[in-house]
Design brief:
This protein is of the alpha/beta class and about 260 residues long. The chain has 9 helices and 6 strands, in the order E-H-E-H-E-H-E-H-H-E-E-H-H-H-H. The strands form 2 sheets. It has a 4-stranded parallel beta sheet with strand order 2-1-3-4, with helices on both faces. A two-stranded antiparallel ribbon has the order 5-6. Helix 2 packs parallel to helix 3 and helix 8 packs across helix 9. The radius of gyration is 20 Å and the shape is globular.
Length: about 260
């Protein structure tokens, strides 16, 4: 019998549209029910900043508000509380301790197992980790994915063998100095120049053209590409993903 996992997720549109389908496909032994972000009702969108797609401390506050409501409305309906957020270059252990400390104050869920998982620095790291099954096969990036990969690694120092290590923490912004998703978008918008024909060390750069080609979209491309990645490939390059993968793989099989 499938077990129920309540998902309290941060992030924006890519997490909303992509995370649950990815979890359902990868871990069929569990039923995943999204509790946050709270589903938006039809009609005018709220103007309040941060009301949708929260992260960090804002996500913690939302969990403190929504979890007791869910526990009261659906008692004994949850087998695992999964909190998932973009790490944004913060310290994973510190963030995990903050979240679990706050959840532990909610006595009604004392007997429910809890797990905190992260995408580091953002969920697009999973796509980059399995580039050959994601970007390289998508028709929107045909004919330029090799150059995109070259540009990301050479010009932006994206480590394809360890994408979770991209960028550094900016204390003032409480997030990464450089956003991985923005860098990925830029790889599909930067224009080729004469200088792009050959690199400084004489190596031939892959041919490319971004002219009249789609730019990378977090709202459209990220959800669809998450369905294409092979989690076994991602877990080889992303330690925090591997932690999440092993937890859910064991939990959904053994329960």
């Amino acid at each position: 019998m499938a077990v129920v996992v309540w998902v309290f997720s941060g992030g924006g549109e890519s997490e909303v549209r992509g995370l649950i389908p990815f979890l359902e496909k990868t871990f069929p032994g569990c039923i995943f029910i999204r509790k946050t972000p709270v589903r938006q009702k039809p009609g005018p969108k709220p103007n309040k900043a941060g009301s949708y797609g929260r992260t960090g401390q804002s996500l913690i506050e939302q969990i403190k508000q929504e979890l007791p409501i869910a526990l009261k409305a659906e008692p004994n309906k949850c087998d695992l509380i999964l909190v998932f957020d973009d790490l944004d270059c913060r310290d994973s252990q510190t963030q995990k301790s903050k979240i679990l400390s706050e959840i532990s104050k909610i006595r009604e869920c004392a007997d429910i197992e809890k797990f905190v998982g992260f995408a580091a620095p953002e969920i697009e790291a999973w796509i980059i980790a399995d580039w050959n099954n994601s970007i390289a096969k998508h028709p929107d990036f045909r004919g330029r994915h090799q150059w995109m990969r070259w540009w990301l690694s050479q010009e932006k120092n994206v480590p394809f063998d360890n994408p979770e290590s991209f960028s550094e923490y900016d204390r003032k912004k409480d997030c990464c100095q450089d956003k991985l998703s923005d860098t990925l978008i830029e790889s599909t918008t930067v224009k080729n120049t004469v200088e792009d024909e050959d690199s400084s060390n004489g190596d031939r750069r892959p041919p490319f053209s971004n002219v009249d080609r789609p730019r990378f979209s977090k709202g459209d491309h990220t959800p669809s590409l998450l369905r294409k990645i092979d989690p076994n490939e991602v877990q080889k390059k992303c330690p925090l993903f591997r932690e999440l993968y092993n937890k859910l793989n064991n939990f959904c099989r053994s329960s």
